[in-house]
Amino acid sequence: MTQDMLLEPGLNGAFVRDGFGALPVALAAKLAPPLAAVPAPAPHHAAQAASQHAARAPLAGQRLAVKDVFDVEGLRTGGGNPTWAAQQPLAKSTALVVERLLEQGAQWVGKTVTDELTYSLAGVNVHYGMPRNPANPRRIPGGSSSGSAVAVAAGHADIGLGTDCGGSVRLPASYCGIWGIRPTHGRIAANGCFTLAHSFDTIGWLTRDGALLTDVFNVLAHSTTQALPARVMLCLPDDLVTLLHVRVRAAFATAFDTLSGRFETSLLTSASLAPEAWSQCFRVLQAAEIAQQHGAWAMRHLDSFGDDVRARLKAAVTISDAQVHAANRMRSDAIRTLARIFDEPDTYIVMPTLPWIAPLIGTSGAEIDEVRVRSQQMLSLAGLAGLPQVSLPWASFDGAPLGLSVIGTRGDDEGVLAVARAVHDMLASAQTDG
């Protein structure tokens, strides 16, 4: 199939054509407001009844874009690869998270472009093209939730539902200058969602503001907004600072000084963490799980993939049992090390989400892979330990955005969201005052 047949025209190239603009009839009927099933109210009560229904729907009016890895009844789940899509049946049910968001008032826009089987962080898809980054059209948007990130950043949607395995929500959030969350692993039910690597994949989402990011979490986790704790400790890992571009390092030092005026702060000394070793551990375990789930199918259809994804899939099936065993031991060590940071309640890691801004379009494949490797050294912390992480808009370099992140202990998603919003507001206020 050609790109014109796969892609909805315009809209920054963010949406696939299948299911765009309207839900399948059967699903739409199931999701009709409860008011439609009861006798019509008297005319002078109709507006009041509609208002009450809207008040009960916390996401009323928020436009929803959904990464094409979620089942939607009556549609095929494409996964970014036309050969894969052609072999999928029409979904007989809808992913729990999609159904929940729609039930709570979100308005369907359509499904969004994803990297092939979500196995990339670039946002480049040989079949669907590359969604155009609204924050800087000369730079890549980041993947694999590229379409959802671009849809939100461009204003075509308010909520971009995605998935995050190795950084597929957090990285495009940073590159596109918006909010993104990777919740605690397993906190949000993934029923009806394609997974790349089962012990790493999470549901995630993107918005243009922290309040809506929190509202979506409250809906999906059946939670309530948490107030900022009276005492918060922000930790800065020195091992991650050394990974940053020199200009990011200088800007972050200023930001950390600003945050020190409101929060307690602490520097995690060098060699507290092992980001290079941990990211390699992540890549081994992720690849082994991908081979376990998708290796047989991928090897039969290698010609259907772009060069970059094909190379990763071929490498994934060569991972040995010995490599997996060693990586699992290292993962256990990483989990214990990170858990000790959060021994004291209300302690959080704060850091730039990535070492640097998005690469320019046309950057060589080798350079993109090098960026991927460096980025994973920062992204793998939350992935290995299943920790909640929020990437928030922060700074701009050479006309391109870079996000800041807050990471917390397992299960403290509410705290991470509250701290991230407070950090954002404080830094924004300092920029305005300056």
TrEMBL record:
Its EC number is 6.3.5.7. It is an enzyme of class 6 (ligase). SUPFAM superfamilies: Amidase signature (AS) enzymes. InterPro entries: Amidase_CS, Amidase_dom, AS_sf. Keywords: Ligase, Transferase. GO terms for molecular function: glutaminyl-tRNA synthase (glutamine-hydrolyzing) activity; transferase activity. It comes from the Bacteria. Signal peptide: none annotated. This is Glutamyl-tRNA(Gln) amidotransferase subunit A. It comes from Paraburkholderia solisilvae. The lineage of its organism: Bacteria, Pseudomonadati, Pseudomonadota, Betaproteobacteria, Burkholderiales.
